[in-house]
Amino acid sequence: xxxxxxxxxxxxxxxxxxxxxxxxxxxxxxxxxxxxxxxxxxxxxxxxxxxxxxxxxxxxxxxxxxxxxxxxxxxxxxxxxxxxxxxxxxxxxxxxxxxxxxxxxxxxxxxxxxxxxxxxxxxxxxxxxxxxxxxxxxxxxxxxxxxxxxxxxxxxxxxxxxxxxxxxxxxxxxxxxxxxxxxxxxxxxxxxxxxxxxxxxxxxxxxxxxxxxxxxxxxxxxxxxxxxxxxxxxxxxxxxxxxxxxxxxxxxxxxxxxxxxxxxxxxxxxxxxxxxxxxxxxxxxxxxxxxxxxxxxxxxxxxxxxxxxx
Length: 310
What we know:
This protein is of the alpha+beta class. Helix content is 43%, strand content 17%. A three-stranded antiparallel sheet has the order 5-1-6, covered by helices on one side.
């Protein structure tokens, strides 16, 4: 198996009111014996004010926090992230997991900074802060939801498909069955990702790069800002499709697996903005409005703009 290596540098200082042991105990509580952390082991050396975490993945180095007499720590850790042989996607799960744990303990530090060779860990750390919010609908957007809801699209999954179908100049049934022969991926068939890809490809521009259909194959083969945006849009939208075509069939407040910092930010908005509002509402129309707010927010955040098919 191929791996991508990334050396992450950690620099920080604990608050004067917090002891090293308080921080270590906070971190220890976040290490759960399940999922990716099931094989993790940690050791705390109270006299040396040090905590060491072994990931036991056969590759990554141990992670260590050791405070000096001023309450400062400075260290680095090399992570080996496996690359999927078919999709070529990099699985940063281990690296992201330790960053998540440190973020939970962030309030106990006076400062903590993350840097790395490729900016992946640093971007993910930044993504823990909100970069966008749920967009409020304009009157025109709200009325569009009302019109389609009254037409019979009362499930938000169906309503979002109906909106994309309209934007594509298609009937609902035509769009749902649509396959663009140039961008068909077998593993996506039957998933909302497949329709999102066709929608983006044929009816959108990306930042200042031009129409997506004109730049798709230029950027397709390498990791880049366009692919990160496209993958993040597809996956982020799939979070809210509970009809069997998304990644889950119910609201979950658990963190989704995210291979990209941009997707992690979308997941943050999903878990802390969209999901609580969705669960609180029992009105189908309100849920449709909320879903369209989420759809547009993710669409704009990832850098796409609607221009229609040509």
